[in-house]
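Fold Annotation — chain and its backbone

Encoding — discrete vocabulary of local shapes
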Amino acid sequence: MIKVGDRAPDFKLDTLAGKSLRLSEFKGKKVVLYFYPKDDTPGCTKEACSFQENLGQLKKKGTVVLGVSADSVDSHAKFAAKYNLDFPLLSDETKEVCKSYGVWKEKSLYGRKFMGIERTTFIIDEKGVVQNIFPKVKVDGHTMEILTAL
């Protein structure tokens, strides 16, 4: 399990534009790396739109926002277009990155157990070190929580 003070695992994932993106490309900037369960669902939409609404404030703090889910690049493209999201959404269909960050977990809904992404946000500093971890994120007020932590 990743802890505060650990080096953030580097990864390479596909983006909307059909290109790949590496976490290590953002050395020298803070990164808000947030993992979310599913594109275009109520909680995930609210979270993404909140990050979008506060993107200017986050950028003023020298911060980049990256969203990760197991959805396809096509799903991300539709989601980003529908809500005018102006930050990268990364596709982790193999769930390798989710597993390396410890967010792929057993979940329960209405008594049914299944594997899925536990909504979690990591703040990674300019040197690639995990500065904060927000597990089991509650969407309401989360972006303000992030801005305060930065």
Notes: Strands lie at 12-14, 20-22, 30-35, 63-69, 89-91, 104-109, 112-117, 120-124, 130-134. The domain at 30-149 is CATH 3.40.30.10 (Glutaredoxin). The mean pLDDT is 94.
